[in-house]
Design a protein that fits this description.
The chain is an alpha/beta fold. The chain has 8 helices and 7 strands; from the N terminus they run H-H-H-E-H-E-H-E-H-E-H-E-H-E-E. Strand 2, helix 5 and strand 3 form a beta-alpha-beta unit.
Length: about 220
């Protein structure tokens, strides 16, 4: 979720692109309203749209999401999966996870959804994978640790999608004393995913910055 519409793109571009997004169905609209009313940081609608395109191309069998929140992205991803696919998702907050289970139940997905309650780093260490699609959308200072834990559990050709890589526009600014730890951590993470020989990465300046990395 971006902090300001013009934090990354110029306002005119961002508003124009927003105007091209398709209308949401009643469930996603209700989830977006709930998130806005209750201040839950779900993915932006343009990220949801991008995920749909990526999933339609890739047809993954085993998805891992780091950071469930109210299950908005689980619904978006799950709708692109058929009966044989599995979506696993991790959330620290039990009340938030309870809400996610309720919304995801309403979606009546064909695929299996496995909810994990706990700290992402602790949960990932217990998962065996292999995963072919990962959505990282959790603690920004931990993105590098998620990647360390996940790389051995990813198939060749797996796609890693990371949200908020430009973090309110702060990541591209010159490092400064007292900046948010998330900005510092994401600057390091972005350098890593764009230079690691095991990954092929593109970072898109949409929403709050989206990373797409293919495991080579
Ligand atoms: C940005 S939200 C996820 C949004 C979700 N992917 C979506 O688009 O609908 C990040 C979530 O991670 C959860 N979280 C925070 N710290 C965590 C941790 N250490 N382990 C697992 N989840 C955590 C937060 O409670 C929050 O719900």
């Amino acid at each position: 979720m971006k902090s300001r519409i013009d934090a990354i793109l110029r306002r005119e571009q961002a508003e124009y692109l927003d105007s091209l997004l398709p209308p949401r169905d009643p469930l996603l609209a209700a989830m977006e309203k709930f998130a806005a009313d209750e201040n839950h940081p779900i993915a932006d609608a343009e990220v949801a749209q991008l995920m749909q395109v990526l999933l339609r191309l890739k047809t993954p069998r085993h998805i891992l999401e780091v950071g469930t929140n109210i299950g908005y992205s689980v619904v978006v991803m799950g709708r692109e999966c058929d009966r044989g696919a599995i979506v696993e998702t991790i959330e620290l907050n039990p009340q938030t996870l309870h809400k996610a289970k309720s919304f995801v139940g309403d979606a009546k997905l064909e695929c299996q959804v496995i909810f994990h309650e706990g700290a992402a780093l602790e949960v990932i260490s217990r998962l065996s994978g292999p995963f072919d699609f990962v959505f990282i959308d959790c603690v920004k200072t931990e993105y590098g640790d998620y990647l360390d834990q996940l790389l051995p559990k990813l198939q060749q050709g797996a796609l890693i999608v990371c949200d908020n890589l430009l973090w309110k526009g702060e990541v591209a600014a010159a490092p400064r004393e007292g900046e948010e730890p998330s900005a510092t951590a994401l600057r390091i993470f972005n350098h890593r995913i764009t230079t690691d020989p095991r990954l092929l990465t593109s970072i898109l300046p949409m929403s709050d910055g989206i990373g797409l990395s293919v495991v080579l």
